[in-house]
Write a structure and sequence with these properties.
Order of helices and strands: HHH
Low-confidence stretches: none
Helix content: over 70%
Number of domains: 1
Radius of gyration: 18 Å
Number of strands: 0
Strand content: under 5%
Length: 91
Amino acid sequence: MSLPLLTITYSRLYGVSTTQPAGPRSTRLLLTILTILVAALASNLAITHLAASAWWGLIPAVVAFVSTIVLGRSYDDALRDELRGTTERAG
C-alpha cells in the first residue's frame, strides 16, 4: 500500500519517474536480470519435478543471487546515467 504512494509522491516532487528503463543500456540490463531470474525459477521447478536432490537447487539460487547483486548495481548506474543524460538534454 505504501510503496505505490511513495512512488507517486517521489515522481510528483522531483518530476522523475523510474518505473521503466530510461534507455537502451538499462533496458538491456533489466531484460538480462529478468531472464536469469526466470531461468533460475524454471530450473528449480525442473529439479523439483525430476525428484533430484534439493541440493541441486542451490546452483540456480546462487547464480540468481550473485547476478542480481552484480547486474542490479550495473542497472542502477546505467539508469542514473541515462536519466542524467535525459534531463541534461531536456534542460
